[in-house]
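Build the 3D complex.
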Amino acid sequence: MKPSPRVTIVVASFLIVCFVLSVTVLRHLDKARPTATLEEVLYISSPKVLKRLSLGYNGLLADIYWTRAVQYFGEKNHKNGARFDLLAPLLSITTTLDPHLIVAYEFGGNFLAPKPPMGAGRPLEAVELAEYGIRNNPNEWRLYYNLGFIYYTELKDYSGAADAFRRGSEIPNSHPFLKVLAATMAQRGGDIQTARILWSTTYDTAQDKTIKENAVAHLKALQVDEDVSILESLIARYRERTGRLPGTFSDLITTGFLKSIPKDPRGYPYELTTDGRVEVFAPNDLPFIQKGLAPGYVAPVTVKISSHN
Amino acid sequence: MSSRITCIAFNTFREAVRDRVLYNLIAFAVLMSGAAVLVGQISIGIERLVVINLGLTAISIFGIVIAIFIGIGLVSKEIDKRTLYTMLSRPVRRWEFIVGKFLGLASTLTVNTLLMAIGVFGALLYVSRHFQRSDGWLLVALYFIVLQFVVVTALSLLFSSFSSPLMSAVFAFSLFIIGSFAEDLRGFAAMTHGLIGWLATGAAYLVPNFSALNVISLVAHGRAVSGQLVLYNTAYALVYTAMAICGAVLIFDRRNLK
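Done.
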């Protein structure tokens, strides 16, 4: 029996229409359930139960959970969501399923610890995650480095940071800078030079593009903080010498305090205010800066991190 | 035309009942009454939750298993018994056969679900002594479960129109699992770019979306289900089912039955 051409045409057309309709409805369905893709409730929140349920395929499941963690962080950051409640459990599940997934510990250190909106604001959980990573990967020096980093940047615990760097420096084939970092941290904790060494080492050793971009953004912010401090001290010296504030940076150049108009790391000239303060142009593009901001400036919730600036 | 489809559907329903499909109700009754009695003795404060979660999950799993295992045999059984030739020698078109078979199994599953739902409400009444206003949302969850069965039945029929019963079962079950993670798939596809992104997005939209049809844990906590979700889920299930049935008709229409 030959198939009827009429039935074929009608049914095939109907099939195409149905597919188009199904995609349209599905898109509406996704909008009707805004948190559907990255649910605020984990299907199963216990890492141990999940590991048992994975029937030995825990590697693949860890990869899936890791991808969900990345998606979750990206989606929250993109949607101006300042809360990252599921980031810690997602990372915990991921690393329980695959304790050797080093990138998950690195991600934890960089995005779990910083205060919102930059991260989840959970430095203690980040420390816990890093220690768990070290217990499972004792020869991975990057994990000690991450741990020291969290102690240094978020907890301001310089002795904790020094200890973590020292432990890392004892690992065979570890980065030689860990010894320097351990010593520097023990000697002088919170100065800009130490922070610059840390972020530069992060940039040099990280393999992930996002972590590298984050390090670049921090290095630029440190540069701005240092520039503004130097410029403001020069303005103070100018005032001491002349008895008045400089009107423009040209005044500082003519008196020999500066050689040229100072520029920020993006190449924009710094701005001198009438009350002798130094401000940066468009500070939204320079997340993490502490200085050079207008009084009352509030940083945007979504932070732009780009190495192209 | 409609009388022929109705006749095939009714016979499919009768055949399923004769095949003792509804025997699963006994297992379900034992499970529900056992859970209702047991949970009150071993747990505190979650009796209602366990009865609802267990009841609705069991209805869903029993129904999916029936939809797949009966669905895959709808065509092949008729060929093995040679009853298909008798049917098609009469003024019955192939597409009418497929649609009739689908409607027959879908109604069997709907009746089965209704009977099991009575069991869930009975167990719920036993553990909490009275119904709550929020228990009405259980009906929405049950409706979504029926929609799930309708889609799975259509998919089983689609696979059985060109494959052996064993392979059809594997395909249908795999697609059910994949469909349960459809939202994750679309999320992953959204992260890719270029040609791979297009292909991944296309594949993510082609697989059935079962996750939106599962509101069991939501209604177990007495939470409301939005009317918008009911509307979109209904539209989606009907459109996707129509798509699968169209595919089955197109394949079956070309199949050499000699």
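The CA atoms of residues 113 and 242 of chain A lie 47 Å apart.
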